[in-house]
Amino acid sequence: MSDVKKVVLAYSGGLDTSVIVKWLQETYNCEVVTFTADIGQGEEVEPARAKAQALGVKEIYIEDLREEFVRDYVYPMFRANTIYEGEYLLGTSIARPLIAKRLIEIANETGADAISHGATGKGNDQVRFELGAYALKPGVKVIAPWREWDLNSREKLMAYCDEHSIPVDFSSKKKKSPYSMDANLLHISYEGGILEDPWAEAEEDMWRWSVSPEAAPDQPTYIELTYEKGDIVAIDGQAMKPHEVLEALNKLGGANGIGRLDIVENRYVGMKSRGCYETPGGTIMLKAHRAIESLTLDREAAHLKDELMPKYAKVIYNGYWWSPERKMLQAAIDATQDNVSGVVRIKLYKGSATVVGRQSAESLFDESIATFEDDAGAYDQKDAEGFIKLNALRLRIAAGKGRKQD
Amino acid sequence: MSDVKKVVLAYSGGLDTSVIVKWLQETYNCEVVTFTADIGQGEEVEPARAKAQALGVKEIYIEDLREEFVRDYVYPMFRANTIYEGEYLLGTSIARPLIAKRLIEIANETGADAISHGATGKGNDQVRFELGAYALKPGVKVIAPWREWDLNSREKLMAYCDEHSIPVDFSSKKKKSPYSMDANLLHISYEGGILEDPWAEAEEDMWRWSVSPEAAPDQPTYIELTYEKGDIVAIDGQAMKPHEVLEALNKLGGANGIGRLDIVENRYVGMKSRGCYETPGGTIMLKAHRAIESLTLDREAAHLKDELMPKYAKVIYNGYWWSPERKMLQAAIDATQDNVSGVVRIKLYKGSATVVGRQSAESLFDESIATFEDDAGAYDQKDAEGFIKLNALRLRIAAGKGRKQD
Amino acid sequence: MSDVKKVVLAYSGGLDTSVIVKWLQETYNCEVVTFTADIGQGEEVEPARAKAQALGVKEIYIEDLREEFVRDYVYPMFRANTIYEGEYLLGTSIARPLIAKRLIEIANETGADAISHGATGKGNDQVRFELGAYALKPGVKVIAPWREWDLNSREKLMAYCDEHSIPVDFSSKKKKSPYSMDANLLHISYEGGILEDPWAEAEEDMWRWSVSPEAAPDQPTYIELTYEKGDIVAIDGQAMKPHEVLEALNKLGGANGIGRLDIVENRYVGMKSRGCYETPGGTIMLKAHRAIESLTLDREAAHLKDELMPKYAKVIYNGYWWSPERKMLQAAIDATQDNVSGVVRIKLYKGSATVVGRQSAESLFDESIATFEDDAGAYDQKDAEGFIKLNALRLRIAAGKGRKQD
Amino acid sequence: MSDVKKVVLAYSGGLDTSVIVKWLQETYNCEVVTFTADIGQGEEVEPARAKAQALGVKEIYIEDLREEFVRDYVYPMFRANTIYEGEYLLGTSIARPLIAKRLIEIANETGADAISHGATGKGNDQVRFELGAYALKPGVKVIAPWREWDLNSREKLMAYCDEHSIPVDFSSKKKKSPYSMDANLLHISYEGGILEDPWAEAEEDMWRWSVSPEAAPDQPTYIELTYEKGDIVAIDGQAMKPHEVLEALNKLGGANGIGRLDIVENRYVGMKSRGCYETPGGTIMLKAHRAIESLTLDREAAHLKDELMPKYAKVIYNGYWWSPERKMLQAAIDATQDNVSGVVRIKLYKGSATVVGRQSAESLFDESIATFEDDAGAYDQKDAEGFIKLNALRLRIAAGKGRKQD
Asked: Which pathway does it take part in (chains A, B, C, D) (predicted)?
């Protein structure tokens, strides 16, 4: 363990990662660089500076990555209508590659030979951090304290703090929650506590970002989202940057009880786990993106996107953002978004985001063809006969040879 | 046109198909057999008998197919968590293969050499009817009046009725609607009228099966659905047949404003069309089936199902139920459902169906492994290091050779 | 039929398309523009000029498209290791989009409102020509004489020639063959004649581009192919343009009895057909491209390419080159080829092309890791335990709950 | 290490696994049960008995599994036309699940709590053995000596033999080969030695199962393979059991220089490796199975099989035979084989297996439709117009709105 000289730690400023600072210094006898990012988790990041300094850290990185996070990670992911296992909008997964990238960039800047993080050995996040790190700096040393140390209970952690004079008021409100939580601009997640019983309903006071549908306004809210090439660029006609869009949609969605999710999911490490998520803005974005695509995207491109999406979601969930396969899938997805522009109108009401209208200068909806009224010859119904006949030909030949399909 | 002797017509008893009876008799100088089925469309089918008799039909088939419809078509489809283009639950599509099958069986029983239907030449239903018919009886003659005749306006149809003494009180309430509608136990659909403008919001009084979320009760309703091998067998502990389950869920969902959908979809014949759908029970079933699978289904089987689902949805949407590829996909899907048993608890409230609990004797959720607490050695966190290292190996080698992933 | 003013015809100079020139002039009373392209079919194209002139054609296009054909169509297709139905290298399919594009461009240049071709109504080529034409010029009129006229036998065609003074010496050597043939730089195909019995072996004298394996040299020929970004740029170190590469490989392959294929394939129009193909150069290219990728391409990108390939092949076979889905797939494929560079060594011998060596500056083969000898710690075998343990976890949990996998 | 009481070892009788017997006895102080199977590797298995006895083993299992191997593993795999990475016929991969299953069954019979094998920590085989073992007996202990001990060179192994009086004449001819080899009825593989340089051509005297194409007979051999439901049941009309078929085809193929392969492949553990393979019978079987399917299998089922195949190959290559996803894929594949019956005629000549004819009572090839001659109305060419028109509709609409496809 003597060969690590300097390690960059993903540092939240909370109790656990503060203990890690000390533990790294002691165990590896190395210098620790802390990296704290604002990715929209809703807590101040600046206080992490004083805490790190108090722990003897000399190189302290504190950064606001919200714009980059939404622009370069969240937005590209939503172009694919990405959902993991039919339900999960990948709120935690999508933040990890950015953290991994910055950890490595800071390691390169500071001459560090290792990175470290506070994720446990049971979860997906360790995988996402480390795959990213290895992909970007193959020789990096990764230190995952939770897989190494024996501080595997709250009592032992506290005892360690006592021994090492780590102020326990570090312990934030968040840490007193019975749940393990993670938040960024896309979502907040809850695991553990009573959620470990998949039959138990989450308690109302667990949820932090949204009111309950019952407590939401009795009148619906209508919004209009403007898309350009697959990305939202304005809300109700007001131009916004990507992270401003997501912040605004989070407020709108949260106020209307939208985006709560309670699922059992399959982790990459092989176990099932139960999690609750609030993704107010993301829930609206998924609906809206499908709607603008429904009007502007070619059928076969749309279907191919749907077939590729589960793969793409799995790639991100499993932590392979920085991989050739993600690049390849992204190229396919992005190649379809040139005309995905227009406006989607959505009704928000007590837990539901419902599309009620969509329009686009790039619309492929051709009213003159689709109409139930007289179409003045735009579509020749007789063509359908040949279309059906030839599509049926293989089935007819098979049936003629005695094959049974029922 | 002289070579058709007897034709079996999918007869609703409404104005259009009554005109078709007469038109077939005149145009093809052939005998017409009518087939009217109750598949849960919510209208009496027995009155079709007198109407058919009045039109001179001698062989009249009127059947209650609700149980068969849900058991053999809707249920198998929901095992796959089937959605077309991310939104549509295939309510119309899934009813067509059953109609096609009965048309052909009746043709075989009555010695008919042709079948006929009232679907237009612009839609998907003609394809679904005819592909099914050809697959089951390759030599059958198909007559699609809407592709042949020139009665392409309401006025011409009315004039035809006058000329041929077809009582215009045939014209039901449904026909006076500005919308083209179709209904069965799974859903009711609306097309045409103001919906031909994709920006226009559907009027509240269009919807027939559900109250608006705003008008739904202010208190949530909780229900428990019991699954056996992928299918719902009981609601709140009360055993029911498949069609009874769907009827009950339609009522529960409809009363809580659940299952409304407003989309632009891509038809198989090549155009986009806008449709509104109410699928109250199906919307609940989809959520619940995913939830019971989340607890009982293996991860890789679940992911493979997700990758196959868009294909399976397309096969059904396009009308290939009676095909080798549907059989093949169904075999794969059904091979995964043996252990998909247990209970799902759902909250219904003002437009949303939310899963709040799930339990199963077949659960693969292992609390002793998943726990955030001490797991007494059930899972060795150190295994994660090797797991990550080998999964990263190809990325590290590539990065070591200078490949860039960002 | 009176509304066509000018039609661009894909004109081979042979009997059939000469009849079409006359038939178009007569039937549509329109001007005919002929377009004859050298795409490597091995026949002179210049003679088509005099023939067209003799038929009264004023606008005559004769072009050498060999370079464009291989560079922009064949090469991109081979980047995907494309094979249709496990065997067919798509030699005919890949030439059609280029012809379609030029037909439309010439229509635009000459002010023509229609295009025409000599493909039959039973085959794939009509679909490929027409889908391309419609995709590039949606309002174009397409005239497919074989679907319209009644000259459906050799006798009637000859009688038509007599009546219209079309010189029957037009009838080339090719036309006297009992087979329907098509050729371009990628392949030559044979259909019809005794091949209509799938049990009958093709006669040796049918094959035109290759010697039989039995007649090939008794000594193997070794060649080295140099790849840059997925494309062959040199043979045995000699730089060549794409079409020169293919010409050279055709000679090398043909001389060694390589590239004969005898299959039954599924046409897009719904029937099975039997075809024989000679693709000497393409057969070598497929082998070689896989080999250079095996050394330089990431595993997951390679596997994703393999999963997408059948779709891509189908898109091309069915005639959707000019489509959003082909564009999308091509973007994914091309995104993987940046490092597919190096040299492949191949042994050609009596019908077989065998890869015997491959090397690359971009190689991801890491001998220090892969070696069976001592690897000096490059790979820690203990990592495998954790890798296997976590990959097995879901299976162990399932087995622990009593699930049977055998 | 004290907790293992009895371990079942996959024992070849060779030097390495003999050392493992002794090492297990010493290191774990446990009883060793040996299991030696004849899966067609071409070496006597009975001699393993005396060797095991000499090492003090009391429970010795020696079994002929050839029939089971081909019938239950090789044949099902070939129904899918399985190839890994476009080239590899999975000869090693497919034998592992059977060995894993027998190891576990013997562990259950003998009351053993562990299994062991002689595969290294760098390869795929450890994964395949262990995933199978865990899937079938989740609590089993797995001992992989090569990942644990320090006998990582030939010298150390020899020294160990000396110390423990293990007769070094154990060292068979095979062991003196410069290559690491593995054989069973489906193939023999070679790795290591000069093959670790991917540019180096394999030496002629490496190959053991086939003559070189140059040394093969100057006259072709024709054979006829009879299929029933996707499996070969007779050669040249003579009924045979599955393993007899494969043995016979290995001889026929080997004598004609067929089935040599030289590739770089991607291992599941993350590295590329170079391997040479001889798969004479399998190479013929793949060609033949595709040929019989080409005549008897529906197009869409065939295409779906092609899309699923790479996944299925990966599942087997990676060691997940005993998994829900393999079961699911097998169900899909097997659901297509009911009519895959008939006869395929193949020409074997100097390295090539070429299909020259195929026939079947279940043929879907309809000569009356496919013919270039007059088809007497079996196919209406005019149907093609509507077919093309509607397939082109989405492309025309898009082009009409100004979308560019080129």
From this structure: Amino-acid biosynthesis; L-arginine biosynthesis; L-arginine from L-ornithine and carbamoyl phosphate: step 2/3
